[in-house]
Write a structure and sequence with these properties.
redox-active center, Glutaredoxin, globular, oxidoreductase, single chain, five-stranded mixed sheet, disulfide bond, alpha+beta
Length: 176
């Protein structure tokens, strides 16, 4: 995992009220979505290109084993049923793929795709959500259209807060 020369962003987020440092650029609406490599399982890597032609809601959570992350993943799993085949919801965390799989099985999560940023932190670095101090990805929501243009961004300023589900879903609905 190469973290040299990564932009460091301070003063933009906290964890339990304590400041954290985010590594990577701040993604903005209108940007071309950066590519990334994450793991679908221990051996299978996927990238942005694997979801070409689809609208992508990328739900980033620090760990599926926390209450807010669990609720966020469950909420988008329920919403996925209403969105059609042209939309994919990706939940990305640094959890190991088998921990994600165990969580999904126990929680009945079967509509979102869980992907792991554990190996290279490629997603976290590319999307500016990698927390320098603890090597987890910050909670965030990105919506990327079928042409890989970023159409919605929400970086949470406090890690324990929930994202604005309604705003994200409204932005998503305008694209499908």
């Amino acid at each position: 995992m190469t973290q040299t020369h990564l932009q460091e962003r301070t003063g933009v987020a906290t964890l339990g009220g304590n400041p954290i440092t985010l590594l990577g650029p701040e993604i903005k609406v209108g940007d071309q979505a950066p590519d990334f490599k994450v793991n679908k399982d221990l051996m299978t890597e996927v990238s942005l290109a694997d979801y070409a032609g689809k609208v992508k809601l990328i739900s980033v959570v620090p760990s599926v084993d926390t209450g807010t992350c669990d609720a966020q993943t469950r909420r988008f799993n329920v919403e996925a049923d209403k969105l059609g085949d042209d939309v994919v919801i990706l939940t990305i965390s640094v959890d190991l793929p088998f921990a994600q799989s165990r969580f999904c099985g126990a929680a009945g999560i079967d509509k979102v795709v869980t992907l792991s940023d554990y190996k290279n932190r490629s997603f976290g670095q590319a999307y500016g959500v990698l927390i320098k101090e603890i090597q987890l990805d910050q909670r965030a929501i990105f919506i990327v259209d079928a042409n890989d243009t970023v159409r919605y961004v929400e970086y949470l300023t406090e890690m324990s807060n929930h994202p604005n589900y309604e705003a994200a879903l409204e932005a998503l609905r305008t694209l499908v």
